[in-house]
Amino acid sequence: MGIFQKLTEKSWEVTDRATMEHADVDSVARSAAPTGLYLYFAVATVMFLLVTAAYLMRMGVGHLGIGLDWRPTPKPWLLWVNTFVLFLSSVMFQRAAVEARAANADRVVTPYATAGRVMASLMVRPQVSAFVNVLTSAEETGLSVEEIELAESCDAVGKTIGELDVQSRTGAYIVAIRKGAGHFELRPSKDARLEAGDVIVGLGSPEEVARLEQLFQPRGALAHRD
């Protein structure tokens, strides 16, 4: 399969079911995203080599009589200090992340790794990244995402999503439930039973999410509201 066929491949579309059953599953389901990433790095490498070659040619490396007017830029002492501080901070960030994982931390956030994941996601899944930005943007008023933790005094504790009739009463969708043990239950069914300490991730308009929050408020908060 050529590189252009890989880049334009749509692995989710299968036109011949019989062919798929007899073909190699891995080759049929292979995504075009890794190929696009390899192509990006190849282009970036070529551009870096071209800039390096132009730099060396301007210095006159390998060519007599060329680059005689070259004057290297002086390197102030502050440049070396900043470089050392950057290197030291990177090492300390990585060490802190390793120590936090060893201490069974719930979540470890490193700025460089987070930035790298965001840039990679923008390259291979730009529309998904745009949708996530819409969900998390403070400027977007048509859609809201909120997390709601269930207290022990909440009337919804012990009931299922179907028994509460969440969507009909609030209009919002429950897209995930983070259980007390830490794992996520994505797209929970109507039979999913809610427990104290669960964190509900709701999706909807600001008005719908507000009704969802009111539905899962503790009993004392509802009495105070009334």
Secondary structure class reads alpha+beta
Q: Can you tell me the CATH topology of one domain? A: Alpha-Beta Plaits
> What percent of residues adopt helix (DSSP H or I)?
40-55%
Q: If classified by CATH, what would the architecture of one domain be?
A: 2-Layer Sandwich
Detailed description of the structure:
- It contains eleven helices and four strands, in the order H-H-H-H-H-H-H-E-H-H-E-E-E-H-H.
- By secondary structure, it is an alpha+beta fold.
- Among the domains are: 110-140, no CATH class; 142-225, 2-Layer Sandwich (Alpha-Beta Plaits), CATH 3.30.70.
- Strand 2 (173-178) and strand 3 form a beta hairpin.
- Residues 11-29 have low confidence and may be disordered.
